[in-house]
Specification:
2 copies of one chain form a homodimer. With 336 residues, the first copy, chain A, is an alpha/beta fold. The first copy, chain A, has 10 helices and 15 strands. A 7-stranded mixed sheet of chain A has the order 1-2-10-15-14-11-12, with helices on both faces. In chain A, strands 4-3-9-7-5-6 form a 6-stranded mixed sheet, with helices on both faces. In chain A, strands 8-13 form a two-stranded parallel sheet. In chain A, helix 6 packs parallel to helix 7. Chain A is globular. Chain A starts with a strand and ends with a strand. At the A-B interface, helix 3, strand 6, helix 4 and helix 10 of A face helix 3, strand 6, helix 4 and helix 10 of B.
Chain lengths: 336, 336
Amino acid sequence: MSKRIGNQTVSLSVPPKISSRAAIVGPKEGKGPLGLYFDYIFEEELWGEKSWEKAESKLVKEIFSLLERKMEKSLGEINYLLAGDLMNQCLASNFGLRESNIPVFGVFGACSTMAETMGLGAMLVDGGFADNVACLTSSHFCTAEKQFRYPLELGNQRTPSAQWTVTGGGGVILSNKGAGIEIQTVTTGKIVDMGIKDANNMGAAMAPAAADTICAHFMDTGFPVEKYDLIITGDLGSIGNEICGELLRENGIDTNGRLNDCGLLIYDLDDQDVHSGGSGCGCSASVVAAYILREMEKGTYKNVLFAGTGALLNQLSVQQGETIPCISHVVSLNTK
Amino acid sequence: MSKRIGNQTVSLSVPPKISSRAAIVGPKEGKGPLGLYFDYIFEEELWGEKSWEKAESKLVKEIFSLLERKMEKSLGEINYLLAGDLMNQCLASNFGLRESNIPVFGVFGACSTMAETMGLGAMLVDGGFADNVACLTSSHFCTAEKQFRYPLELGNQRTPSAQWTVTGGGGVILSNKGAGIEIQTVTTGKIVDMGIKDANNMGAAMAPAAADTICAHFMDTGFPVEKYDLIITGDLGSIGNEICGELLRENGIDTNGRLNDCGLLIYDLDDQDVHSGGSGCGCSASVVAAYILREMEKGTYKNVLFAGTGALLNQLSVQQGETIPCISHVVSLNTK
């Protein structure tokens, strides 16, 4: 029986519930406006490890450990882990989960990874392939700067349009039983490349991809925009957020104050010197897992549309003068 | 309704059919023993592009174009693309598919990527989320050597245990209608790290992961080893193939001549100077899509167990003295 509605969306017949959520962040993120929401804040970027890479792997390991501990035992076993990250060959996820003893699907969607794992995970649960799946991702300012840009020791200046990679991560467990916030629809993104080449302005590059999949969601489902109390992208930053709002309006979707971005929420943009806001897989992962879902539990929001956004570039593609292909995956988070 | 059998395996209720398959390889692979099976062989590693990276992206694009053209139009639309590759941030897949205008799930399983996309894709079709999904991957000797090892211009010597990254790729389309070879079970791998640190002996590192998931398949399903005419790993090479056979025997699975490896089939190991055999995402992808499935169509094999194997390392993890975590994903290919 087909669960497809429209070109890019599936409607889940038994919507998976979010049965556990966890987020851990680094010192800068802990000092930001959402500090009180995170499960744990570590005090320096190395977190007691010998390298930033090992610190990011530890982050993944500890998030998964928290997720497991916070899940009700009566829900049964975790059947799959879905994880990926920004490091070359998704190192943080693969090293962080190597002792898990649970089947792993590695995914890569750059900063859209959290939404991608939640979309795929929801389908695996709804399809009867799993009782519980864990979806998680991470990023680390130092591993990302070193890999994508310049050695940190250089102290390079950043352009005003640049975003700050979040040191942190988050995850959820999706279950076929229990109560809680559920995922009712999954709208999967196409790759969108509008010809932008500036790797220091990824918000502008990603905004068209976000608008594309959000539009597809409303077109496929026929839902009015008012269904959602919040449409949260992750992570466009201030420039991308503005462009995304404009593109949605041009397509007849007036978000009317409902549109926000994880990269704008995690830092105090006036005081924390992060220019356009936060970015990195761990930004939307930690903001959604710690803050958005908590506010939904409290009743602040009833229905939220989460659009993860990723820039599918690498260091070589920038050096070779290529444009930046982007993607956005959308999942709906619903209070029953 | 749960489709789970055992800890790591799912049994598909309406097994997806392989409705299209395509493989393209480079010059060295074209001169190998399977040369006649591939859809297209390009004559030099750059394939008319300005960089090896662009050549690998072109490879992905052309494989997808072939897959689309070879699929029967009556089967309907392709709903999802599942793809990933070895390049940092899966560049070849993301650039190669950026004009596809089809929703994309990026996956990363190193050289197990082909089996991973087929496993996930089969579940998306069987679960009613898609009518057709395309699963594809690639690798390129020059992009891989440059990224993981040394500049090619150095002409470094290779150790006898090293494998040769295949320039090539392949893919399949899985469909909920039509006739043809089907995927009946998917056994998803756990990460296995036996402490091997030698990045020039990846076959030895990956063999325990392959044996682990193959054992899980037989334990979960209760099938006798005789059900399969061939158990094909991809890509362990000669050293890994031997270790895998031994590990299976120790676990009570006597493959009795049934165990072979894509990395041993694609090159002439005596004449083509590839040391332990082929490797890279494109090795098992092209060998399975072009050769294994063709031989199944001809009736040479009735049932084949395909175990994709991946080494989840990156250049930094080797430099930091880390061991090599590995994974293997298993799908069964069955003639109805």
